[in-house]
Write a structure and sequence with these properties.
two-stranded antiparallel ribbon; 54% helix
Length: 50
Amino acid sequence: MAPLRVYIRRFCDYLLEAALEIGRGHCAFVPHELDTVPLLAQLGDHERCR
């Protein structure tokens, strides 16, 4: 059960970091291991810049 909690915590940390980067107008990079997550897939390509 602990590995799942660690994964969820890292995923939430990544989402927060990505939101902050997008808010600043910087590039948001989608790591390859999270490519299949539908929420992150909405970002488009592996990188999306303003």
